[in-house]
Amino acid sequence: MREELEEKIEKVLIDEESLTKRIKQLASQINEYYKDKNELVIVGILKGSIMFMAELSKNININCTLEFMDVSSYGASTESSGNVKIMKDLDTDITNKEVLLVEDIIDTGRTLEALRRSLEKRGANSVKIVALLDKPERRLIEIKADWVGFKIPNEFVVGFGLDYNQLYRNLPFIGVLKREVYE
Q: Domain Phosphoribosyltransferase spans what residues (predicted)?
């Protein structure tokens, strides 16, 4: 079955070994930054960040809680609509806490900026961002992550949590989806 998914991949952009190594490096940097801070809440943006957040949090060695938000701005499209809809909100009060937003990819920046502003308004001490992938060529809103795994070219990527129409999330690598699949 996996072969059927992999047949739709034009090329592997980031292999599994490179992902694991870089995520451990990011966790080390995050551990250093938060070592003297209290009340860290790690917030994964569903569903795309789930693989990244799982690997990252396994390597976080400070006290933290895990939370999730589910937001949508894509639907079944490859383009963000710009309309950010919160489908699932936090279960925890983040007032006076440090918040680390975990995002799979920064594309236009619209969704992430809306989330960052929302969490800041809720009284968090700080809202920092860690993104596995950054696609700066597509940026419409000026936003930068505090930690980035990989900068990637303007190609439609799937795997390791990223999807097209809810498929391909379970691939253990980041790959470029063949255009014929989504055009």
A: 19-164
